[in-house]
């Protein structure tokens, strides 16, 4: 084309400028749409060219001028144009790539990207008329489940301008990541959007080892460019692990097989997506303490065990950043993956919120960790209103390099399945637990509130002798450096295999935990593991405490056969200062727990019971020290008293014809006849000074407290009368 022809075409195109409203209309029309507007359009021959044209009246008396024509062509034909067409507008008719292209006469530099910019053989730039949505199919993505669409998807992302949406219509898009260099690189200020389960991004069969499917610059830890203001919504990701057995999941970046990875980021949102199946080290990896603002919301994750190397550390969502939210997601694992789905959520740094998530069949539901460095060490962790189903551990509190502080764990429902994991790991299972055992100076846990949670273990009959009993229980707060400022309040703990609540019981360090409140908790059937040692089968277990109040808790045992031993196990001889235990309600189906394994330095105030008797002294019934017995019999003014306070526990009445044998320092006596005995009776054995309280009766075997201070064989057994003190003279 010579200079005169170029000028003439430019003049024709000048009359062909279409308002944006018309461009939007053209972009939405296919060939059928063009035909449907026949009132203003007609088809015309392009002469010797392979392109056909649609002609319309421009309203200026020039119905057959070039300014009034639109070419109908293909991408290939448009690229091949080498002469001046009689139009500056083309409709491309390629299947899945339909659209309107306009010659940009001012652009001589843009590269051909195959989707929104086409450069013809003459060097002209034809640009697709678009609004704010770019379809990956425009760039050659097939979505047929066969073709490798990696490059086409990348081309679409590269072509998108800030604020635009990269759209995945229904289809299965095969991608082939490799190592740490081949993956789909995401950019700032974009939205990736699909049609939910119908828009699938699937890893190619036999992809081998790779770092990630999508992500920002892979140079780790804040070295690459930042990706910010990115949203990924309504897409399904298929890890296709079953057809990639050759891949090895390890800690190296090249073999982690992540789905999304970011090392330098701000304001990333992943929402309403499906990750099924996922078997990588992480599905989502946000890994930079200098980065911030992540939202992972309303997604579904299905973990499936690999058939190759199955034993590897995996966490579905990993965040090491600040100011992030993990909300309303569903994490599940297949039946075959029990014991292999390591973690659902792992959170390093703060502030953060994990709420409204449903977590099913994971070894660890949520791991809440302090920061690795000072960049995101702000405190303020909230884990609230999550539901855990059939998990081995509900919530871990884990120490990294910085202190863990200002933590709220509230209103979570944690349903444990300890039975399914007996052979796994170190044999520990807990609803809420501190797991760090490394004593590093300066690493502390401060201001921790555990409130209104439900922790429910499955009932078990046979128990486990391999489970680590000190690492098992409802709420376990054992940390070598101690904890400071803890509230444990309003929680319900049911069927804990060992302790219901444990504070510093298992730790071997000598650090003191202080400023702790344990109030208004409901602990039912703690210590149900029949093979556990008695010392850990307690409702509340603690040592090395200062400034602690344990009050208004309800402790109950509903088993037909006694399993729990202690309401409170507070090791005699350990450090206790300003510790008060008061106003707790303790009941058991057959009687009471052992209540006496409590250090003498603790201000132990058992609950006061009010009882009634018409005679003095009482002739029947069990009476506990501290009880108040009101006089309901006849009153003689000036002589009768209002009631009696029980000074020493005892049982009123007479027991005859029963003998007992018990060995020194044991708690089970053998009696000749137990028919007249019941749990709660206080008895004496001839020749011994002990006052024994009956805790459990099985045939002629009677469990008592305290342990015997001597040995008796075939000695007479009798009720031990209570010691009473009168109060309130009447008249």
UniProtKB/TrEMBL annotation:
<keyword id="KW-0378">Hydrolase</keyword>
<protein>
    <submittedName>
        <fullName>Glycosyl hydrolase family 28-related protein</fullName>
    </submittedName>
</protein>
<dbReference type="InterPro" id="IPR006626">
    <property type="entry name" value="PbH1"/>
</dbReference>
<dbReference type="GO" id="GO:0016787">
    <property type="term" value="F:hydrolase activity"/>
</dbReference>
<dbReference type="InterPro" id="IPR012334">
    <property type="entry name" value="Pectin_lyas_fold"/>
</dbReference>
<dbReference type="Pfam" id="PF12708">
    <property type="entry name" value="Pect-lyase_RHGA_epim"/>
</dbReference>
<dbReference type="InterPro" id="IPR006311">
    <property type="entry name" value="TAT_signal"/>
</dbReference>
<dbReference type="InterPro" id="IPR024535">
    <property type="entry name" value="RHGA/B-epi-like_pectate_lyase"/>
</dbReference>
<dbReference type="InterPro" id="IPR011050">
    <property type="entry name" value="Pectin_lyase_fold/virulence"/>
</dbReference>
<feature type="domain" description="Rhamnogalacturonase A/B/Epimerase-like pectate lyase">
    <location>
        <begin position="135"/>
        <end position="355"/>
    </location>
</feature>
């Amino acid at each position: 084309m010579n200079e005169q022809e170029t000028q003439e075409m430019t003049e024709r195109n000048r009359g062909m400028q279409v308002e944006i409203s018309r461009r939007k209309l053209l972009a939405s029309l296919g060939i059928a749409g063009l035909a449907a507007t026949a009132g203003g359009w007609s088809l015309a021959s392009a002469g010797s060219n392979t392109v056909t044209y649609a002609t319309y009246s421009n309203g200026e008396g020039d119905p057959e001028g070039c300014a009034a024509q639109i070419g109908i062509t293909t991408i290939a034909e448009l690229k091949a144009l080498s002469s001046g067409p009689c139009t500056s507008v083309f409709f491309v008719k390629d299947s899945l790539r339909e659209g309107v292209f306009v010659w940009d006469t001012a652009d001589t530099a843009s590269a051909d990207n195959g989707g929104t910019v086409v450069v013809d053989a003459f060097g002209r730039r034809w640009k697709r008329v678009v609004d704010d949505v770019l379809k990956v199919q425009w760039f050659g993505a097939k979505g047929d489940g066969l073709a490798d669409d990696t490059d086409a998807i990348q081309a679409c992302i590269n072509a998108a301008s800030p604020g635009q949406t990269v759209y995945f219509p229904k289809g299965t898009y095969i991608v082939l990541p490799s190592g740490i260099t081949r993956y789909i690189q995401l950019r700032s200020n974009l939205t990736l959007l699909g049609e939910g389960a119908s828009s699938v991004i699937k890893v190619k069969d036999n992809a081998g080892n790779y770092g990630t499917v999508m992500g920002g610059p892979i140079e780790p830890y804040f070295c690459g460019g930042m990706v910010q203001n990115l949203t990924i919504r309504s897409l399904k990701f298929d890890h296709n692990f079953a057809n990639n057995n050759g891949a090895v999941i390890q800690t190296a970046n090249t073999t982690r097989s992540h789905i999304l990875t970011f090392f330098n980021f701000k304001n990333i949102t992943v929402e309403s997506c499906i990750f099924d199946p996922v078997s990588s080290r992480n599905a989502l990896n946000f890994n930079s303490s200098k980065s911030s603002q992540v939202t992972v919301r309303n997604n579904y994750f299905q973990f499936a065990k690999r058939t190759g190397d199955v034993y590897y550390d995996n966490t579905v969502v990993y965040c090491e950043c600040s100011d992030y939210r993990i909300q309303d997601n569903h994490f599940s694992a297949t039946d075959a993956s029990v014991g292999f789905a390591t973690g659902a959520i792992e959170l390093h740094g703060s502030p953060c919120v994990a709420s409204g998530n449903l977590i099913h069949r994971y070894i660890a539901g949520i791991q809440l960790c302090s920061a690795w460095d000072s960049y995101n060490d702000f405190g303020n962790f909230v884990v609230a209103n999550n539901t855990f189903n059939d998990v081995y551990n509900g919530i871990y509190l884990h120490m990294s390099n910085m202190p863990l502080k200002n933590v709220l764990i509230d209103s979570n429902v944690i349903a444990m399945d300890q039975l399914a994991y007996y052979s796994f790991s170190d044999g520990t299972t807990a609803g809420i637990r501190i797991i760090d055992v490394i004593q590093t100076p300066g690493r502390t846990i401060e201001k921790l509130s555990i409130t209104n949670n439900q922790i429910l273990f499955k009932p078990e009959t046979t128990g486990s002798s391999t489970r680590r009993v000190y690492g098992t229980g409802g709420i376990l707060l054992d940390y070598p450096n101690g904890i400071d400022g803890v509230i444990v309040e309003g929680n319900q703990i049911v069927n804990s295999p060992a302790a219901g609540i444990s504070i510093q019981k298992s730790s071997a360090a000598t650090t003191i935990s202080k400023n702790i409140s344990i109030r208004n908790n409901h602990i039912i059937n703690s210590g149900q593991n029949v093979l556990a040692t008695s010392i850990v089968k307690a409702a509340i277990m603690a040592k090395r405490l200062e400034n602690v109040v344990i009050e208004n808790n309800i402790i109950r045992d509903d088993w037909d056969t006694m399993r729990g031993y202690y309401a409170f196990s507070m090791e005699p001889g350990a450090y206790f200062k300003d510790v008060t235990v008061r106003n707790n309600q303790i009941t058991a189906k057959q009687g009471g727990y052992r209540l006496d394994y409590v250090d003498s330095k603790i201000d132990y105030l058992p609950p006061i019971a009010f009882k009634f008797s018409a005679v003095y002294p009482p002739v029947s019934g069990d009476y506990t020290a501290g009880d108040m017995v009101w006089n309901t019999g006849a009153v003689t003014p000036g002589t009768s008293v209002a009631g009696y306070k029980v000074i020493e526990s005892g049982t009123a009445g007479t027991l005859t014809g029963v003998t007992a044998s018990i060995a020194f320092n044991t708690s089970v006596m053998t009696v000749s006849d137990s028919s007249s005995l019941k749990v709660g009776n206080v008895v004496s054995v001839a020749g011994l000074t002990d006052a024994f309280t009956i805790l459990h009766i099985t045939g002629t075997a009677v469990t008592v407290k305290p342990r015997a201070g001597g040995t008796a064989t075939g000695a007479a057994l009798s009720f031990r009368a209570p010691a009473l003190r009168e109060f309130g003279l009447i008249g």
